[in-house]
Specification:
The complex is a heterodimer. Chain A is of the alpha+beta class. Chain A has helices at about 5-35, 45-55, 55-75, 80-90, 90-100, 110-140, 145-150, 165-180, 205-225, 255-260, 440-455, 480-499, and strands at about 155-160, 185, 190-195, 225-235, 240-245, 260-280, 285-295, 300-305, 310-315, 315-325, 330-340, 345-350, 355, 360-370, 385-390, 395-400, 415-425, 425-435, 460-470, 470-480. Chain A is elongated. In chain B, helix 5 packs antiparallel against helix 6 (about 180-215) and helix 6 packs parallel to helix 8. The chains are: A alpha+beta, B mainly alpha.
Amino acid sequence: MLKISAKGVTFFVIPFISIGCSFFLPECIILSLRRDFLTPTKTGFANSLWNFFCSLKLTIFLLIGLSAASIIGTVVPQNAAPAQYAKIYSEATVQLFNALDFFDMYHSWWFILLLYLLTLNLVACSLKRLPRDWKIFTAPTVAMDEEMEKSLSLVRHCKMPGSSAKLRDMLGVFLTREFAAPVVTGGEGRYYLFAQKSLYSRLGVYVLHFSIIIIFIGAMIGSYFGYKAYVNIEEGSETSVVYRRTASAGQMETPEQIAARAIDLGFTVRCESFSISYYDNGSPREYKSVLSVIENGRTVVDRRPVIVNSPLTYRGITFYQSSYSPADDPVFHLTVRSGKDGTGRKITARHGERVPLPGGSSLQVIEYTDDIKPFFPQLSGPAVRMAVMPKSGETQILLLLKNYPDFDLQRGGELAFTYDGMDQKWRTGLQVAKDPGVWIVWLGCCLMVAGIFMAFFLSHRRIWVRIENGRVSIGGATNKNQPAFQIFFDTLTDKLKAM
Amino acid sequence: MSSSFLFNVATLSYLVSMVVFFAFLGSRNKTIGLAGSIAASFGLIVQTAAIGLRWKESYDLGHGHAPLSNLYESVVFFAWTIIFIYVLIDFRYKYRAVGAFVVPFAFLGMAWAQLGLNSGIEPLVPALQSNWLLYHVITCFLGYAAFAVACGVSIMYLIKSKYEVGNGNAKSGGIMSLFPSTKFLDDLNYKAIMLGFPLLTLGIITGAAWADYAWGSYWSWDPKETWSLIVWFIYAAFLHARITRGWVGRRAAILSIIGFAATIFCYLGVNLLLSGLHSYGGG
C-alpha cells in the first residue's frame, strides 16, 4: 500500500501554498488599492477567491475548526511507540489514525494547512480594511458639513455670542485644554475645527495580526535552523556530540540510525559532577549538574552549576537540566566490628557484589534507599538491606541505618555493622536546544501584547466643530466604547454651554 | 490564628453572600442586595489575609514560596480572583443580581478546596522554583476569573432573554426586573471577555517564556498548552464573531459559556483526566 509520509506531504504542501501566496498576495494588494475592486462589477476567480479569504466567516470557521482539531492530539497520545498504540487501539483504528496523521497531529499536513489558511485569512482581512484606515490616517475629514453631520450619532448645537473668528479662537483654546489641539479650516465666517485622540490605536489590530505572522516566522526559523536534542554525560566525562530528538528516538534503533541523529557541537561539554538534594520531607529540592565548556583545548566556561530553571547557554546552544540516571552500581561504605571489643574495619561493597568478611563469611548489599521514612515512618535517613552469609548455616538479612550507627550493635551478633554512606556515580541528562528563531517569537509576543492593548483598551476619538453665524455645532465619534465616549462628550458640551 | 481558619471564614462568607443574593432575587429588597455585596467583600478581605498568612506560614516552615504551587492553592486563588473581579464590577455598575450568578463559582471552588483537597504546604519541586510561576499563574487566573464572570453573566442573559421572548415586555415585575437589561448583560459579557482575553494571552506568553527557560521549548503541544490555545481560539472567535452581525446576544452568550467550559477543562480536566507537565495533577 502506498503510504505518503506526513512529513513528505507537509514539505510538499507548504512550499506549494507559500508560492501560491507569494503570487496571490501582491495581486491582492494591487487590487485592494484600486477603488473599483470592492464593487461587485468586477467578477472572476481572483475576486471570489479574494472575497473568500477576507471573510470573517472564514476566520470564525478556522478558529473553531482549529479548536476542535486540537482536541484530537490531547486525547490520542502523540508520537508514542507502535507497541503502545497496539495496546490502546484495534489494528483498524491504528491504520485509520495513521492515515489521518493523528499520531503526530500537530505536524500533519492538514493541521498546518489550517494554520496557513488562518494566516492567509488574517493577511487578507487586514489588507481589506487597510485602504479605509489609510484614509483616516492620511486624509482625515477635517470639516464637518451638514451632510457628514447626519452620519454622526453624537451632535449638539448651541448659540454663542461673538464673531465667528473670535469663537474659532476660543473653541481652539477650549478643545486644546479639554481634548486635543484642533486643525482649523474654513474662512469667511464659516470655520471648521477637528481634533482627535489616540489615532494610532487604529493600528492595534494590524499590529496584533502582524504579530501572529511574526511568531509563525520565528517558529519556522526555529524548526528549520534549530534543533531539540539531548545528551547524557557521566560525571567526570565529556562529549562534543548530542542527539537530535525525533519521533522515533528512544525506540528500537540500529547504531546507524542513532548515529544519523548525532549533532557535532563544535565544542566540548564536561560534566564535573551531578548531585541531588532533598527537603526534610524527602521530596527533591534541587538537581544540579556542574558543567564546563572546553573549546580548542581552552576552558571557556568553568564549573558552572546548571539547575532546573537555570540553563547554560554557549554559542546559541542551551543546556537544560532535564533528567539523571545512575552511571553504574553504587559503592557502599561499611564498618564491620567483631564482638564487643571490636576495632572497626572499613570495607566497601558494590551493589550486589559478594564481599568476604573476617572469619570466612561474606556479605552482599541487596537494596538501598536514600530515605527510610516511607517504609518506617519513625526512622529517617539512608539505609541498606544486606545479606550476611556465614561459612555454614543460614543467611541473615540485616537492616543498617546511617543515622543510627548503634542499631546493628543491639542485635548482639558476632559481627556488628554500621553503614557509613555510599558513592554513586551519576549520569546527568541534558536537554540541548538551539533555536535561532526564539527572539523573533518573543518580538512577536511583545507586538501581540502591544497590539492587544492598543486594539482593546484605546479608542480613536474624534471631535468636529462647525462655527457659523454664532451657531456652534459639535459632533463626536469613537471607534469603540461608545458609552464612555458619550459621557465624555456630554460633559464637554455642557462645559462649553456654561461658558 | 491560622490561614486554614481564615480560609474557612472566607468560604462561609461566600456561602452567606450566595444565599443572601438568592434571597435578594426572591425578595427584591435593596438592603438585602447590599448585604450580599458586603458579605462577598468581607470574604475577599479575609481570603486576601489568609493567602498572605499562608505565604508567611510557608516561610516559617523554611521553604517559603508564593501559595500558587498545587491544586489546592490554585483553586483557592481562582476563587479569590473571581470574587476580586466580581467586586470590581459590583463597585462600578452596582447590579447586585449579577452576584447570584458569579459568587456561586467562587463558593463551589472554596468548598471543594477546603473539604476535598490536600491543603498541606509542600516545598516547591525544582521545576516550579522560578519567578515565572508568579507572573504565569496570576495572569492566567485573572483571565479565567474574567471568563467565569462572563459565563455567569451569559447564563443571566439566556434566562432573561427567554423570559422576554415568552412574556414580551408586558410584565415588568418579578425577579426579572432585578436582572440588568439584556443589552447591559450582553455588553458586560463582551467587556469581561475583553478583559480576560488579554490576560489569557499574557498567561500563555509567560507560560511559553517559562517553558523555554526551564525545558528549552516554548511550545511543545503539551495537553495543557494545547487546551489553553483552544480556549484562546474560542474567545478569539467570540471577539471576531461580534464584528459581524448576528453574533451578539444569544449566540454570544452561548459561545461565552462554551468558552468557560473549555477554560475549566483546560484548568482541571487536563490535569485530572489527561497527562501532562503541570504539577498539580495529582491533587
